[in-house]
Specification:
With 308 residues, the protein is an alpha/beta fold. The protein is built from 15 helices and ten strands. The strands form two sheets. A five-stranded mixed sheet has the order 2-1-3-10-4, with helices on both faces.
Length: 308
């Protein structure tokens, strides 16, 4: 029996995989599963490149960067949108306190440093996009981290002034210091595809039935996250062990937009990243939708309207 290698990130908002572990997936696909934890999406892309991964939950920008460089992967389903937040100490004002002016929010950090996950992650791309948009690239230092939790630690120690990352970063930081969300997910590139499900192209070609079976389990997990977040939080807390249900539920509440559909908004938001990634020098090619997505499977499993 072949081993199916699935990669996921450490962030709590990438929670579909936790619920799928508890959903009889292994028996349904009749293959042993090896779940592997990755610190960032770019690390996952490298695993795909080396044929050490079959399936991965990751943000679209690092995947697009990999595809631009020849990594044979396709996004076969969505997962979540708008999963990036910006946090800082209470001395910094939120966008609602600054008349919804993004420039004023980011200008608070002139001469300072903002921490963000590794270069090429969706959070890194979004942060650099806005710094460039408001002519702040040479006025604000960006520090990349291989593990998002260290952003909160450095924020507590005063080594950086702000942090950009997942909702779980925001909740974790609040346990270490008096911090708050100064940019909510809805302000950071509307409909941005925070993560999707990627399959190695060889697996898509050789085992299309496995793709369908996997997506049915993924759909059930997303349904639970949307409709019974407290139940989902209980399962997540039990899996992680070191957090309680309230902590997990707080993460889910910040950005609850879970679905598996590849909606027009999801795809269009991804394609808008192509220009951003080229402008920032992350990719060289003008990739087309067919280079990134394979939509026929999710259309069979999720024919109804999107739930984002």
């Amino acid at each position: 029996m072949d081993i199916l290698k699935i990669g996921h990130l450490s962030s709590l908002y990438h929670t579909n995989f936790i619920l799928m572990k508890d959903d009889n997936l292994q028996n349904d696909i009749e293959q042993r599963i090896k779940w592997s934890l990755f610190g960032t999406g770019p690390e996952m892309v490298q695993a795909f490149r080396k044929n050490k991964l079959d399936i991965g939950y990751m943000g679209l920008p690092p995947a697009v960067i990999g595809i631009d460089k020849g990594v044979a992967i396709k996004c076969i389903a969505g997962g979540h949108i708008e999963g990036t937040v910006m946090i800082a100490g209470m001395q910094y004002k939120s966008i609602s306190q600054l008349n919804h002016d993004m420039s004023k929010v980011l200008s608070q950090f002139k001469g300072g440093t903002i921490g963000v996950p590794s270069k090429g992650s969706i959070h890194d791309v979004i942060l650099n996009y806005y710094l460039k948009e408001y002519n702040l690239l040479d006025k604000v230092e960006v520090k990349n981290y291989g593990q998002a939790e260290f952003i909160a630690v450095d924020l507590k120690e005063g080594f950086i002034e702000g942090g950009v990352g997942t909702p779980s970063l925001a909740v974790f930081a609040s346990t270490l210091l008096d911090s708050h969300v100064i940019l909510e997910p809805k302000y950071l590139l509307k409909n941005n595809p925070s993560y999707g499900i990627f399959f190695h192209c060889s697996l898509i070609e050789k085992q299309p039935n496995l793709v369908i079976k996997f997506l049915y389990h993924h759909k059930r997990a997303s349904y639970l996250l949307r409709n019974s977040p407290s139940v989902a939080a209980e399962k997540i807390a039990k899996t992680f062990g070191i957090i309680d249900r309230n902590y997990a539920e707080a993460v889910l509440k910040i950005s609850p937009k879970y679905c598996i559909a590849l909606s027009n908004d999801y795809i269009n938001a991804t394609m808008s990243f192509i220009r951003i990634l080229k402008d920032l020098g992350y990719i060289e090619r003008d990739l087309a939708i067919m280079d990134i997505f394979s939509t026929e499977f999710v259309q069979k499993v999720h024919p109804e309207a999107e739930h984002y």
